# Entry
Amino acid sequence: MMLEKYSIGIGDRFSHQGKAQLQAVLQAKDHGVPLTPVWNKSHREHTIIGTTPANVRAEADAAVAALGWPGPYFVDADHIGPKTVDLFVQASDFFTLDVADFIGQAAPQAEVREFVEKHRRYVGSLAIPSIDHTFDSPHDRVEAIARKFLLAVKQAGSIYRRLVQLKGKDNFVTEVSMDETDQPQTPVEMFFILAAIADEGIPAQTIAPKFTGRFNKGVDYVGQAAQFEKEFDEDLAVVAFAVEQFGLPANLKLSIHSGSDKFSIYGPIHKALVRRGAGLHLKTAGTTWLEELIGLASAGGEGLAIAKDIYTAAMDRFDELCSPYATVIDIDKTRLPGPAVVAGWTGPEYADALRHEQSSLAYNRHFRQLLHVGYKVAAEMGRRYLDALERFEYAIAPNVTTNIYERHIKPIFIGR
# Structure
């Protein structure tokens, strides 16, 4: 299977917004941007919510049928490892191989030496076309890169071969993910990681590195945008050079995880993509769940009551909900409104505090981050929450579509 140049991961916690999400992708198509939708959901999210990969497939297929989507689309087994891959085989045709846990675990020294020897032509100095400086790549540095990343790539190779065994070689798209780690990968590290991916025979079509800065859930990028722009541009050049050098798929492209709502870097991303003629896969997830809450609050009545109850419970269970996401949220509890305050809010007041409009004085990024990780509370409501999604679809769907198209697709893939 072949992933197109531009694609977007449209995660959906509760499997109710497939049509609204796809409507945004159709708007992009109407503006001359062919964008491939990829519905993604992780094993952790399935476990918390009580869904299965089959639910994601059913949602995607139903949305495509309802709107007459004419192009390719995929269902992503997001962040899978050796223990979870089999659960996604039947429903998915896009697999994100998450091997970040193996980064830093040293490969056998003999394999490290073999890797360095195989790629000795790049040892010493690495020149990447269209980058106006060379990178130092002395023997000891390349050896250190191999020790740090080789075992992780070999783990990806093992998962990939398992998928080939179960699905057949040409029946899925492969992404390699290394974003959930402490330090960003340098361009030199990226180059040799791609060399190792090629050595493993993984036909990766997307790779998700760890970028500089913080990609906190549901809020804007935290870091120096200029530094990110330089790093992102150099990564694009490295990917293009690695494709040429190692025979990787010609459509190999960068994938940005936790990519939703990173508004301050969307402009630099767009400029770099246009300048280099490169593709991109952007993964979003929780931004749609937050638009559900905005729609429910705006609808008033039971919708607003549910939104308020979710916040009250999230405050009561703050540590439990935030702990799994500690590395990707930054909440100042002193900036959170008390449940009694929120209980007195109108629907528009709740929506304005949550909606990601940074120019609004009402917007509260701490409130937004807590609710982003609070979807477990909604899951535990069961039919009360799901029935509300159906009852108030008229208020939710426009928010979902507008958010994905205006705030995400348009600035990255179309440009303002």
In short: The two ends are 32 Å apart (CA to CA). The first strand starts at residue 6 and ends at 10. The chain has a mean pLDDT of 97.
